[in-house]
From TrEMBL:
It holds the Pfam family AAA. Belongs to the AAA ATPase family. This is Vacuolar protein sorting-associated protein 4B. The lineage of its organism: Eukaryota, Metazoa, Spiralia, Lophotrochozoa, Mollusca. Residues 160-220 form the Spastin/Vps4 C-terminal domain. The keyword Nucleotide-binding applies. GO terms for biological process: endosomal transport; vacuole organization. It comes from the Eukaryota.
Length: 223
């Protein structure tokens, strides 16, 4: 199909699942799939001009040697640096209301050395849950002005938002007593991000990174 629709790109994510080293213990079907893959990528009479095959893996050392030869360029993509991490925070927040400043986002990028893009997404998702937790655990609410749930362009003066017991106008109540159309959840703040960050550790350890760098030195090719 790729040849028929060319120019085209075939992308194989988690390529180690398909292209791991062949062994005597694997099933006949798995062996046939790998053999067919090798033949299609670089077999006699195959015309792959206009077809680009890309693969990604976190454990390149497990790839079959014949597969490694088929992928002519082996490029190591390291963990994101601080500016890239800050940008991932921005993208992950998207249009979600928050009170983070540009300085806050840059600081988060600096604080997340060793975090992958997926790790940062987990941090943001956890932070986005913090306002929900504040609502659920609040013992006091106060009236504030904010956009109507039914029409965001209309401002209302009687919305209820969580607060501390000592806050001006605090009323003792739980979220179950707040009418659904009058609840104003707190927006995501820097403290929410820092709380989420303290609960999320990097998923990539130093040994894995060192092994990836050693593989790159032995087999990698710069694009």
């Amino acid at each position: 199909m790729a040849r028929d629709k060319k120019p085209s790109i075939i992308f194989i994510d988690e390529g180690d699942a398909l292209c791991s080293s062949r062994s005597e213990n694997e099933s006949e079907s798995a062996r046939r799939i790998k053999t067919e893959f090798l033949v299609q990528m670089q077999g006699v009479g195959n015309d792959n001009d206009g077809v680009l095959v890309l693969g990604a893996t976190n454990i390149p050392w497990s790839l079959d040697s014949a597969i490694k030869r088929r992928f002519e360029k082996r490029i190591y993509i390291p963990l994101p640096e601080a500016p890239a991490r800050s940008n991932i925070f921005r993208l992950s927040l998207g249009s979600t209301p928050h009170s983070l400043t540009e300085h806050d986002i840059k600081e988060l990028g600096m604080r997340t050395e060793g975090y992958s893009g997926a790790d940062i997404n987990i941090v943001v998702r956890d932070a986005l849950m913090q306002p929900v937790r504040k609502v659920q655990t609040a013992t006091h609410f106060r009236r504030v002005r904010g956009p109507s749930r039914d029409n965001p362009d209309v401002m209302e003066d009687d919305l209820l938002t969580p607060c501390s017991p000592g806050a001006p106008g605090a009323m003792e109540m739980t979220w179950m007593e707040v009418p659904g159309n009058k609840l104003l959840e707190p927006i995501v703040s820097m403290s929410d991000m820092l709380m989420a960050l303290s609960n999320t550790k990097p998923s990539v350890n130093e040994n894995d990174l060192k092994r990836l760098e050693e593989f790159t030195e032995d087999f990698g090719m710069e694009g």
